[in-house]
Design brief:
The chain has helices at about 10-20, 35-45, 55-60, 75-80, 100-105, 140-150, 160-170, 170-190, 195-215, 220-225, 230-240, 245-265; strands at about 5, 30-35, 50, 65, 90, 110-115, 125-130, 150-155. It starts with a strand and ends with a helix. It is α/β, with parallel strands linked by helices. This is Pyrroline-5-carboxylate reductase.
Length: about 270
Amino acid sequence: MTRIAVLGAGKIGEALLAGLLAGGRSADELVFTERHPERAAELSGRLGIEALDVAGAAARADIVVLAVKPQDITPVLAELAPALRRGTLVVSLCAGLPTALFEGALPAGTPVVRVMPNTPMLVGEAMSAISAGTHATDDQLATVEKLLASVGRVVRVPESQQDAVTALSGSGPAYFFFLVEAMIDAGILLGLPRSVAADLIVQSAFGAARMLRESSDHPVLLREAVTSPAGTTIAAIRELERHGVRAALIAAIEAARDRSVELGRAAR
């Protein structure tokens, strides 16, 4: 039995715990930490998973998953380092933080895998990218892939690409929510009730995403299939291009990448 400790039971930590349970893990294989006692008690009661302190969780775990905010990592690593058992696999879900940071703070030779998940983990549809640190083996990468497959899809990337992944898929759901919000507002402007506009746009987004996943066609071809000559869609596309929406999205993703790099530098 592989015991897993999730350090930090925020939204991502809770989603991972729930996904592992749904994927067939026993509650006896899982523990978690949470600095707020009320939250720890509520989550423990709801999921049936024991809440411990960092040292207690590390002492019992074969895999330690760090799901804390990047700015909170220093005190957590200070607690974790003396309690970590030799050979324990450390998995970081902390945005922007390189594996070298963990390898420098934890006992020599500690295997570390860096992961960039995203919030659709809450509904079992995460996109997670994983990268091996200096001491992580291919078998350990495969273990992390299997662990994360319970809450979505997984891809391996070189660690040098993780800041780009953070900007693209890590922050990506927020871009879609932003666009959906704007489209719902447009529906209201055009005279639709908010509930009707929301239903129209959310289902359209869901259907479009499914077409993208299941079709072998490039997104350009899927868009062109909706774009009739002199029709309504091309009129809308012209306005999107005129207002620089494509350029704004690219610039926004570049800014997110730069912020990810800054977070890593600040932690070091």
